[in-house]
Amino acid sequence: MGKTKMLLLGVLFAASGAVVAAPQTPAVTGTQSYEIKDFVADFTKFNIGDTVPEMYRSEEYNIKQWQSRNLPAPEPDSHWTYMGGNYVLITNSDGKILKAYNGDIFYHR
Q: Where in the sequence is the signal peptide annotated (predicted)?
């Protein structure tokens, strides 16, 4: 075999070995693929467990039609709000972030 063929064969084996060695992660499908762990709103980074500003706890930001936005039902003592282009599930009592979804979930079909 020529050097070129040997080189190509070596690259092929190296690439196939890398594919086999890649960690297997379960595919996230449906609305779960829109779930996010952090996001930015009002120039502030928020994470699950953070408390949202008072403004987002107001009735004006309370999302009552969560079904039409493809969001899951809110957990007891919580409601959906909208922050920085994302849907955020917060507790009614203290505004703690329980879950967040990318705003593109609205278009999920």
A: 1-21
